[in-house]
Structures are given as structure tokens and as C-alpha cells.
Amino acid sequence: MAGKFVFKKFADIDILDPFFDSLKKDYPGNDNSTGFSEWFKAKADRTALVFEDEEGIAAFIALKKEDEEIKLLNNNLEKACRIKVSTIKISERHRGQRYGEGAIGLMLWYWQKSKINEIYVTVFEKHKGLITELEKFGFFNVGKNLNGENVYIKDRRDINYNNPYCSFPFIKSGFDFSGYILINANYHDNMFAYSDLKNKTNLDLKVGNSVRNGLSKIYIGKAPNIDYKIGEPVLIYRIDENNNPGKKYRSCITSYAVVTGIMQPKRNGKIIIPFDELIEQIGNKSVFDEIELKKKYNDYYNVTVIELLYYGYFGAGHNVNLDWLERNGYWTRMSNQYPTSVHLTEEQFKSILMEGDVDVSNVIIN
Prior knowledge:
25% of the residues lie in helices and 31% in strands. It is of the alpha+beta class. The chain has two domains: 5-158, Aminopeptidase (3-Layer(aba) Sandwich); 172-365, Archaeosine Trna-guanine Transglycosylase, Chain: A, domain 4, CATH 2.30.130.30. The protein has a seven-stranded mixed beta sheet. Strands 9, 10, 11, 12, 13, 14 and 15 form a seven-stranded mixed beta sheet that branches. Strands 8-16 form a two-stranded parallel sheet. The longest helix has 16 residues, at 99-114. The protein is globular and about 65 Å long.
């Protein structure tokens, strides 16, 4: 289905869309909360992240900054500045397509940019799928509010680094090394946000297109050896496929990710993982269809599969090109070393992020 996440004012969103029926039912209004319809109409000037396809609204995320006490049934959380996810909903027709994962990624990037310590969301117990996704991304339950909803919080002062999903979108300092993932332009632009425009918003809307199928990405390569580790941050390098003199200015690093899984289904022509088993493990995380995957599987002497979690992007006009990498000693085209075998130190990784106008202190934290 076509579509992407965009910001829209409540006033420009059709509250009569059947998408909102369940929210109206869940929040009819009582002594502890305003009814959804009344709340929605009262917030006409507020903006939300909305995903629409040819059938109508498919996802809705409303966020706001607040400085209030959170009242719980057993105790209260003291007044503090927080990001509140006042509404998050994904349509039934998109369940299983990882739109929820993409939606959570967008709201956590928004939270990260705010530099506010806590983000929280309230959710009824019956919404098992959403709760599973929230817990997967490091939210923890602090109790029930007066409306009977579970309150889930994530705190940048208490990040769980046990796995890259829990710690998203923060990277723990002290990693051994980083590296490059090289992706041809036509595939790259389906997986990661990319633009050579100079304008930039607080949340680049091109990103809303690249996360519509989730933050988990599958890279298929033909490197002879795997030189990555799970939990390792990597830089996403977009290969310009036009063979022209300006290539070193067009090929560039656009994004960064963290390795979450590694497989080598074929090595030196020997099948290690049968194709049918590989397809089952990849699921819907690849930009390649089954025919393309089969061709690569058959044609490549070595097949390397790396699962990545899309952690961040440089944004329009801030991508780091090959010329800069060469001039600073982070890339040598004349070397015999396979590009995916390049090891960058943490300081080199930080330097590249800074060149991409990324606030490193707001990404790599303890």
C-alpha cells in the first residue's frame, strides 16, 4: 500500500474516518478523562503524525510536552517535564507489516531531539500488540492511571543496553569499533532517508517514508567474511551508480544503524542455510522480493545477510561524501581492503557523525 508518515494538524484530519471508532469507544469520557471526540475537537491547532493510504487513515500518533504529575492508582509520579504520547494507534489492516515499529521509531526520534528525560504512553491492557512493541523498545510499566490504563515510561537516564531495540535511539559509549555498510542507490533509497536538498525540518519527512515498513532492515551482500558484531554501530554508505567525475561527491554516508543479526547462508559457494529457511528468517524486512533474493542467492559465491536497526540519519544537505572521508583518512579507494572490513574507532565514528551535523552527545550516552 502506498503512503508515508506526515505531520498534519488535527483540524485537517477527518475524525469521522472509521479508524477513530475504537478510540471513541475506549475513551467515551468520564470523571477522570475527556471523551476522545471532545478532546480531538479542542486540539484543532495541535499536530500529529499521520499515515494515510488509499483506504484512509492507517496510523495516528499525537505527542506533546507537559510538566505535570502523573497520577497512578497506588502512587503518583512527581511533576516533571515529559513527552507524552497522548494517542498512538495502528489500523488492523496494517498489523504484521511493522508500521507500529516505524511509528515508535518516529516518536522516539522526536523525544530524543527534545532532550527531555522521559517519554510515556498510556495503554489499556487489551492492546497486547502495542504493549509488546513498547516493551521491546525499552518502555517499562510503572502502574495504572486513574482511567485504568497502564503507564509505560522510557527514561534516557536509565537506558537498557541489553539489546539495540531496548536502547534505541541511543548508543552506549565504549564499543570496540564501527564499520561501513555499502548499498547501491536504488536499494538504499527504499531503505533509508536520503535527499540532496538543503532544507531540513525537525523531523525530516523523507524519514516518514523510509520507516513505513519498520526500523528493522535487511542487508544482502557478498562479502567473503563477516566483520561485524551484534550491537555494533555501522554507517550506511549510499553508492552513486552513475559513473561520472563527480561520484566522490555523490556517494556518501546518509545514516547510521546498529547490527542486530548476522547470517552467512553461502560461503565459498557452499550452502549453509537453504533458501527456503533463509526466506522464513528474513520475513518482510527486505526491500527485495523473493525472485530478487533467489537470484542473489544463486548468483553470489558468498551470501552475507545482516539485520540492521535504523538508528538515525544525517538529514537533507548533511550527508558525508566520499571526498571528505578520503581527505580525513576514513576511506581509501586504492586499498586492497574490502570496504566492509574497514574498522573505525569510536572517535572516528563520532567524527563522521559530527560532520553529518549529528549532536553526538545526544546519541552516544552512558
